[in-house]
Specification:
alpha+beta; 2 helices
Length: 140
């Protein structure tokens, strides 16, 4: 077969395979963006929960509200520090368990927008961390 007779076949093969290639590339970009966003949220939640777990809640846990507020504030600040925008973010922190096994559970969720919209993605992404309190006192 001469080179001249393959020209049309090459163009047809390119036209048939190009949409598949573009679809794969767009899918990879969307999936990488999702993983990047998930990692940012997980890091922020871990930072906030770890910060709260190191604060003394006081005798009979009189300052537990301050500890939980610190966790929420730190989560939002850590996410924004990593470059994320927190429009629609919901950060929650709660004390779970009983002394001497008290822990802090932190959760953060936010809306997710894909880059290309080519692949299905969740409407919201969420991360959850539980950190054991470092200060454990018996009730007096």
């Amino acid at each position: 077969m001469s080179r001249r007779s393959r020209r049309g076949a090459n163009a047809i093969e390119f036209a048939l395979l190009m949409p598949v290639f573009v679809g794969v590339v767009l899918g990879i970009l969307d999936y990488a963006w999702l993983q990047f966003q998930l990692q940012g949220v997980a890091t922020a939640v871990h930072s906030g929960c770890r910060s709260a777990a190191t604060i003394d809640p006081g005798l009979n846990e009189r300052d537990i509200g301050l500890v939980l507020a610190r966790a929420r504030t730190k989560m939002l600040a850590a996410y924004q520090q990593s470059g994320g925008t927190c429009a629609g973010c919901v950060a929650t922190a709660s004390a779970i368990g009983a002394l001497p096994n008290r822990s802090v559970e932190c959760t953060m969720s936010l809306p997710f927008t894909s880059l290309t919209g080519f692949v299905p993605a969740p409407a919201r992404i969420e991360a959850n961390v539980v950190a054991r309190h470092e200060y454990q006192r018996r009730q007096q």
